[in-house]
Amino acid sequence: MGKPIHAVVAALNADGSLSDKTVGRLIHVADPEGIFEETCRVALMIHPDFELPRFLGLWTDILDLFAGRYPGYQACNTRYHDLSHTLETLLAMVRLCHGAHLAGDRFSPADLHLGLAAALLHDSGYIQKEGDNDGTGAKYSLDHVALSADFADGYLESRGFGPLDRERCRAMIMATDLAFALEEVAFPDETSRRLGKILATVDLLGQMASRIYLEKLLFLYRELVEGGVEQFEDELDLLVKTRPFYRFIEDRLAGPLEGLDRLMRLHFAQAFGVEADPYRQYARKNMIYLCSLLECREDYRAELKRDGVVSSILHEDKG
């Protein structure tokens, strides 16, 4: 692993925004080890009594789950809702929790652990059980949030969590369901409500700020087709409809999610000395690039060049 995330020296553009290289070092973290170390570092900034050994056990279990080493489950085979998205969500979760802490929220070590557990478990419903060999986990697209909450409940029970904490974690995960009104989520208490809204916020920001968000939308289209979601004529139609979806997300962040994303700036100001939110900055960059990409609709795939996503899809189509 290279230089740790906390050692990043932020470089600014002339307009005061973060340079692309700095944004990449801060939020586009490819190695799980780097994400784990930064998550632990920020968690200790929130509460010095955060239990690192306990979190290491959770972390190990989740990596085993996605890799197919968890008893009774196959490896994750969805390529949009994959391990990288889960880890992006985890890192954004602890950072926004830190921003909320700086704004006056107080999370106990146990609360913080449960919130991070919800982040790591929020898409576990896509992972197929052993013997479930029909298609991929994408077939659970419409039900994956409830399935994730069910898995989390069973997992936490096996790790000694009581009924109240399992109910709190379930509510946090249900808050990520875009088809479910937030006011209908049965949060047991105000702390779980706050953590649930933080999780719902970072679930959106993490994926939309990914450096390969636009490329991975091609994977998302295939997941939605297998899952029986019939909102899109083809993958290009999904790309076209991503622009109004972004506006929908903006409204959701500002409205039901109470503008909590604004607290991300507090984290980056204290942790890195910059008055900026690289998640928002890169999400906007993705949308600007999407607009230019859609001007070349006949050859839009040629503009999606990162990480070999298009070539892998072309190979599959030929097969």
Tell me what you see in this structure.
This protein has a single domain, classed as Catalytic domain of cyclic nucleotide phosphodiesterase 4b2b. Helix content is 59%, strand content 0%. It has helices spanning 20-27, 32-46, 52-67, 83-102, 109-121, 144-158, 163-174, 190-208, 213-226, 235-254, 264-272, 278-293, 309-318. It is built from 13 helices and no strands. It is mainly alpha-helical and 319 residues long.
Which key phrases capture this entry?
single chain, 319 residues, mainly alpha, Catalytic domain of cyclic nucleotide phosphodiesterase 4b2b, 13 helices, 59% helix, globular
The overall pLDDT average reads 95
Low-confidence blocks of residues? none
Structural class by SSE content = mainly alpha
Rg over CA atoms, rounded to whole Å, is 19 Å
Short description, anyone?
With 319 residues, the chain is mainly alpha-helical. 59% of the residues lie in helices and 0% in strands.
SSE layout and pairing:
Blueprint: H1 20-27, H2 32-46, H3 52-67, H4 83-102, H5 109-121, H6 144-158, H7 163-174, H8 190-208, H9 213-226, H10 235-254, H11 264-272, H12 278-293, H13 309-318
Helix pairs in contact: 1-12, 2-4, 3-5, 4-5, 4-8, 4-11, 5-7, 5-8, 6-7, 7-8
